[in-house]
Specification:
transmembrane helix; mainly alpha; 321 residues; membrane; transmembrane
């Protein structure tokens, strides 16, 4: 009876935050909007009645539009990032046992995540020096250095984003170790977590590329006020980062998929020799393309979605410009 009650309590504990997720995400969205409105002035314009239609060293109306688009995309990617962080931390916490060695590993993961965020937020220049030059140029305009905290917003979201991907790698490692000690039905449940993690990570990286695209469109107002001039960094940098993000997805999920498949097949062959490899392959339809060419195409689209995001964004931009 006590064990049954304990198991029921744990099950309710796992489900409670999941059931609350819609309303929690709603309030998170509003809170982020209020934060970025205060720091970035998403709906605020620096255009005045006298300069509204004049061509200065930057175009206030165009700047307002791009800053608003970047701010909204930043909110969307941040909401997905927070969800990814919560998903990873929650599942890593549920996997942790009362053993001293595993507790040490768990708290080491949390401490290293915090250290990674501090490093990126305060010390790292993720733009290879180019971003800092852009920051200095924008800060030379007094209005923005005083009223728009764009550097803090970029560093904050970049730091949380890298922590999110780091925790994804940790959770995938936990899943690989956990599979070895579960029965077949438990493995099925664990693979659902694996697939959910894959979809959330891909969504996060794609929305991050979208906000990066708008961020560099906003930078373009300060780099060149001439809309007919193509600024190389504005066009190329989001594309470069999209390739980097596709590399993250491929590097994390394809090897993990193969490791899990090998472990599950080996475990199932011992427990049930009649279970074929093809049947077990169906547990990884999105990864292996086990259901034919349509699944292979779907897998390709999912893995390359960060690149597709920036390509579609650039095509739309060229079509309306």
């Amino acid at each position: 009876m006590e064990n049954s009650f304990s198991a029921k309590g744990i099950s309710q504990y796992r489900e409670f935050p999941i059931l609350l997720s819609p309303v929690l995400l709603f309030f998170l969205y509003l809170a982020l909007y209020a934060l970025f409105e205060n720091k970035l002035g998403i709906s605020h314009t620096f255009a005045t009645a006298d300069t509204l239609f004049e061509a200065k060293h930057f175009e206030p109306v165009k700047e307002t539009i791009y800053r608003s688009a970047w701010g909204i995309s930043l909110i969307i990617s941040s909401v997905v990032n927070f969800y990814l962080l919560f998903f990873c931390i929650f599942n890593i916490f549920m996997f942790k046992s009362t053993g001293l060695s595993r507790n040490i590993v768990f708290y080491s993961v949390l401490f290293s995540s915090f250290a990674l965020f501090i490093y990126i937020y305060f010390y790292a220049d993720l733009g290879g020096g180019i971003a800092q030059k852009l920051y200095e140029h924008i800060n030379s305009i007094d209005k923005f250095s005083e009223l728009v905290s764009f550097e803090k917003a970029i560093d904050l979201t970049a730091g949380l984003g890298f922590v999110g991907v780091y925790l994804v790698s940790i959770l995938l490692t936990y899943i690989c170790f956990r599979v070895r000690n579960l029965q077949y039905l438990g493995i099925l449940e664990l693979l659902k977590t694996f697939k959910a993690l894959f979809y959330i990570t891909v969504t996060f990286l794609s929305t991050t590329i979208a906000q990066l695209f708008f961020q560099y469109q906003w930078f373009s107002v300060f780099i060149s006020p001439n809309k007919n001039v193509v600024v190389d960094i504005v066009f190329v940098y989001p594309l470069i980062m999209s390739v980097f993000y596709v590399g993250i997805v491929v590097a994390l999920f394809i090897p993990t998929s193969e490791v899990l498949k090998h472990l599950v097949i080996r475990k199932a062959s011992i427990k049930d020799p009649d279970v074929s490899e093809d049947e077990l392959g169906l547990l990884f339809p999105k990864m292996s393309g086990a259901r034919g060419i349509l699944e292979n195409i779907k897998s390709l689209l999912l893995f390359t979605s960060p690149i597709l995001t920036v390509i579609v964004a650039d095509l739309v931009k060229m079509a309306i410009s």
